[in-house]
Design a protein that fits this description.
Distance between the termini: 19 Å
Low-confidence stretches: 1-21
Mean pLDDT: 80
Helix content: over 70%
Order of helices and strands: EEHHHHHHHHHHHHHH
Strand content: under 5%
Structural class: mainly alpha
Shape: globular
């Protein structure tokens, strides 16, 4: 149930906007409800990695990359009830936000002496899926969900185009089109554009396969976290800086885009909430697959969470 049903709401340009009275607890509750499964599964992964060998196989990440993520993308596209063309403003806004984030982020990383290829995709692509979508629903209601899903879909595309290119160090049309997630994306978009109904059997199959993806990703995240030693002061400073940078960069870029584009308040609010999310777990999976800085990214995923929460509280107060 959206927070509008729990606390006082004020009309603003046709959008239900939360007043600050009583909203702090509501936002914390929504954030915690979305966050708890992430923390629990990652913690379970830490425990399993330290006490068992269940997560030692490198084939687990390949399983997610080759089957889980493509199924997740197909499931999202097959279950969308609104045409992508009907939300073109949202599409253009998130593309502009990601592009602006990439340009600014690359410059900042170079100035900081950090590896642009290793860290830029993590900065540009937030966790708009399993964390961003529940928060948008809780704060803005079901009317914002179609925009949130479009934003999340574009971010997924960015992961498997910009992210793969940066982390692999190479880009070619052949390698891009041979990527399982990109194939799933192209097929899903092509099928959705026909207007044909997906057979129920196919929907259920894709739903079952996609259901394994997030849990396995989080368990693998926990495996990586189990080997982290944050007592190294230099590394801790870098991780905190990258965490603050992810939220600040995303929120700042989204704000500039809302000022440049004639977006409705609902779309603008959805964009800023999604852009202020922490680092996505998919960034860790891709970094592990392409031998990127996976330990740093795993740590930043968790450290960026409280900074993201502060950003969301700030946004709700401004709304």
């Amino acid at each position: 149930m959206p927070l509008c049903g729990q606390v006082e709401c004020l009309p603003w340009h046709g959008v239900l906007v939360l007043s600050w009275h009583g909203v702090g607890g509501g936002v914390l509750s929504a954030y915690w409800n979305a966050l708890f499964p992430v923390v629990f599964c990652a913690g379970l992964g830490v425990m399993l990695a330290r006490r068992t060998s269940l997560l030692d196989s490198p084939e687990l990440s390949r399983l997610v990359t080759l089957i889980g993520l493509p199924a997740l993308i197909l499931n999202a596209l097959f279950t969308m009830t609104t045409s992508l063309w009907a939300v073109s403003d949202t599409f253009l806004a998130i593309v502009a936000t990601l592009a602006l984030s990439a340009v600014i982020g690359a410059a900042v990383l170079r100035l900081a002496g950090l590896d642009v290829r290793g860290y830029l995709s993590m900065w540009v692509n937030p966790n708009t899926g399993n964390l961003g979508l529940p928060l948008v629903f809780a704060l803005l209601g079901p009317q914002a969900m179609v925009h949130a899903v479009v934003i999340s879909t574009v971010v997924q595309i960015s992961h498997f185009t910009l992210g793969v290119w940066l982390l692999s160090g190479r880009f070619s049309v052949k390698s891009l089109l041979s990527n399982a997630s990109v194939i799933a994306l192209c097929f899903g978009v092509a099928w959705s554009s026909t207007g044909w109904q997906v057979p129920t059997a196919v929907l259920r199959t894709v739903d079952i396969l996609s259901g394994m993806t997030i849990p396995v990703m989080l368990l693998l995240l926990g495996r990586s976290l189990s080997s982290i030693n944050l007592r190294e002061l230099t590394r801790l400073k870098r991780i905190v800086g990258l965490s603050v940078g992810r939220v600040t960069l995303g929120l700042g870029a989204a704000f500039l885009v809302t000022q440049a584009f004639a977006l409705s308040p609902l779309v603008a609010h959805t964009l800023m909430i999604q852009a202020s999310m922490p680092v996505a777990v998919i960034s860790y999976i891709l970094a592990a697959h392409y031998h990127g800085p996976k330990e740093d990214i795993a740590a930043v995923i968790l450290v960026s969470l409280p900074f993201s929460l502060l950003a969301v509280l700030f946004l709700v107060a401004r709304f």
